[in-house]
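Dear support,

Our group has been running a series of protein-ligand predictions, and this particular one with S-adenosylmethionine is the one our PI (initials K.S.) wants archived with full inputs and outputs. We had some confusion internally about which version of the output was final, so please treat the block below as the authoritative record. The input we submitted was:
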Amino acid sequence: MKHDCGIFLQWALPIMKMRWAGFRKVHKQVCKRIRQRMKLLGLQDFEAYKQWLITHDSEWNKLDNMCRITISRFYRDWAVFDYLKDDILQRLAQQAVYKKRTLRCWSAGCASGEEPYTLSLIWYFVLKEKFPELDFQIIATDVDAKLLDRAKTGCYTYGSLKGLPKQWLPEAFTKTENDYCIHSSFGKNIEWLKQDIRKSFPEGRFDLLLCRNLVATYFEPELQVKIFNQMKSALRPGGFLVLGCHEKLPNGLDGFSTTVEKLNMYQMIDNKNDQV
Ligand SMILES: C[S@@+](CC[C@H](N)C(=O)[O-])C[C@H]1O[C@@H](n2cnc3c(N)ncnc32)[C@H](O)[C@@H]1O
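Confirmed final output from the archive:
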């Protein structure tokens, strides 16, 4: 039987604990990679690739690597970053300064750095003046080493930065022939880590965790519950978890209260009444 890529993915994704619904609209880039792989292996169609997987265990890891959607941009979903900038980060900064500790943020699935650099820009242009003594730290993790290298280089097309407040661009970026490159000073408070979120988390606890357009979109519900439960120990009491605009926490998960429902922001319930 001849398989098309969609049918193939609907068979393969659940085996990898991923969900087809998350990939439905964006599966073309995954299919393109799989077709290249099939060509390399000399396989004619998706049915042949399915049989290859069934008989070659090590191929699953390769398929897993091909099933990554890498789309991102600066200040993605402006209402979310406006709210972080004008409300949540202000409250967290005030508390961190009062308690004389570092304000720690984690961008999980940070792609080419657009999200952690957005936080760094908010710190520089908004928080720094109001809270000069604030120590602001960002941990940015992704499973893809190539994306992390791109992030460290920090050069982007205009399309990925056009959501940023326009007045920030001249001071934060240098325009080259084809790209806009962020000044290295904006990476000084970012630590880049290659990590698979299904296997490891960065050390310590965070005030703000951005896990957007990754776990709740691409992973099956059971795996989502496991990861979000683990995230509770990665958050400080009263800390915030922010999901993507089209995502929600899976059923069967307690310990979070909704802060701003339509922006998918959740706060860790603090039993010691220590919320910010
Ligand atoms: C769609 S992008 C989202 C980027 C950013 N968070 C945003 O919302 O714009 C998903 C990112 O998650 C990363 N990713 C996929 N699977 C991962 C995993 N198991 N562990 C860590 N990162 C992963 C991908 O490499 C990609 O950079």
